[in-house]
Amino acid sequence: MATTTKRSIPLLKHLLRQTQTQTRPVTYMPRPGDGSPRTVTLIPGDGIGPLVTGAVEQVLDALHAPIIFEKFDVHGDMKTIPSEVLDSIKRNKVCLKGGLNTPMGGGVSSLNVQLRKELDLYASLVNCFNLPGLPTRHENVDIVVIRENTEGEYAGLEHEVVPGVVESLKVITKFCSERIAKYAFEYAYLNNRKTVTAVHKANIMKLADGLFLESCREIASKYPSIKYNEIIVDNCCMQLVSKPEQFDVMVTPNLYGNLVANTAAGIAGGTGVMPGGNVGADHAVFEQGASAGNVGKQKIVDRKTANPVALLLSSAMMLRHLQFPSFADRLENSVKRVILEGKYRTKDLGGTSTTQEVVDAVISNLD
């Protein structure tokens, strides 16, 4: 019986490879010239940023991906994004970035927020899903959090009325609420998603979140094939940690989206493996999906043990955005193989590997 089983394994592997070859889909018909290399702005950033962006550079080089990076040294303690960096992103249309440190308090503006405002990157997308081989408390998690990125509490409209009293304004507009709702439903439609859930606190902020809900309902009526529902943000957090598999696509105002995305990421395997990006009508910036502004502890930087998986998966999203789907598939499949095998994992995933060891494993698993 054991001999028969041993003989069956190579046959099964052969049949599996044959099946995969026979069912390979036609991804898209490129236009002449679509294979030309594309220049992408690269911002390594602070902390673990240079480690994980360096990992992406190595893997894309091993893939022979048609990407040329235009690299800029930007740090979170700068007062503004340098004009040459903005010009580069506007010219290239696409940027890959590591985390930029955001100073706490002191009235210093976040460069991450500046970048989103300057380029009108109004939609933040974080995909939180279970990776085969990575044990988590919940299974069948595949949540996409789409967050309005330009207004709400993150607009930074604050002032001190009198000493000891600070007024912080939350601004919600119909224009921004409608366009983020439209993006969420369009995303669901194009990606064969079934449900969009609007997250709100309209029971308390009746005008601001009420306007957001009203906008979502109007857009939902134009997509009858997609189920639409609503949930109050505090109940949403409770439902996320108890039954996350019920959620599909979630659309949120700015602050709630940050909280929900990080919660969903923690449930699905941790912020170190969740891809994401920010997109507007003309530009896109890809970065680690959850806690994108978190630059990691100095100990991780010193020991070079940062997890590159999230940014590698974000790079796969970037490759699809640039219409290089086969490169994206190869990169994504290789990362998933490494996670499934479980031999090379950084500390946050229960392993002892360095960033470079994970990168070498991903490169060796490329098709």
Automatic annotation (TrEMBL):
<keyword id="KW-0816">Tricarboxylic acid cycle</keyword>
<keyword id="KW-0479">Metal-binding</keyword>
<keyword id="KW-0460">Magnesium</keyword>
<comment type="function">
    <text>Performs an essential role in the oxidative function of the citric acid cycle.</text>
</comment>
<dbReference type="GO" id="GO:0006102">
    <property type="term" value="P:isocitrate metabolic process"/>
</dbReference>
<dbReference type="InterPro" id="IPR004434">
    <property type="entry name" value="Isocitrate_DH_NAD"/>
</dbReference>
<keyword id="KW-0560">Oxidoreductase</keyword>
<dbReference type="GO" id="GO:0046872">
    <property type="term" value="F:metal ion binding"/>
</dbReference>
<comment type="similarity">
    <text>Belongs to the isocitrate and isopropylmalate dehydrogenases family.</text>
</comment>
<feature type="domain" description="Isopropylmalate dehydrogenase-like">
    <location>
        <begin position="39"/>
        <end position="362"/>
    </location>
</feature>
<protein>
    <submittedName>
        <fullName>Isocitrate dehydrogenase 1</fullName>
    </submittedName>
</protein>
<dbReference type="GO" id="GO:0006099">
    <property type="term" value="P:tricarboxylic acid cycle"/>
</dbReference>
<keyword id="KW-0520">NAD</keyword>
<dbReference type="Pfam" id="PF00180">
    <property type="entry name" value="Iso_dh"/>
</dbReference>
<dbReference type="GO" id="GO:0005739">
    <property type="term" value="C:mitochondrion"/>
</dbReference>
<dbReference type="InterPro" id="IPR024084">
    <property type="entry name" value="IsoPropMal-DH-like_dom"/>
</dbReference>
<keyword id="KW-0809">Transit peptide</keyword>
<keyword id="KW-0464">Manganese</keyword>
<keyword id="KW-0496">Mitochondrion</keyword>
<dbReference type="GO" id="GO:0004449">
    <property type="term" value="F:isocitrate dehydrogenase (NAD+) activity"/>
</dbReference>
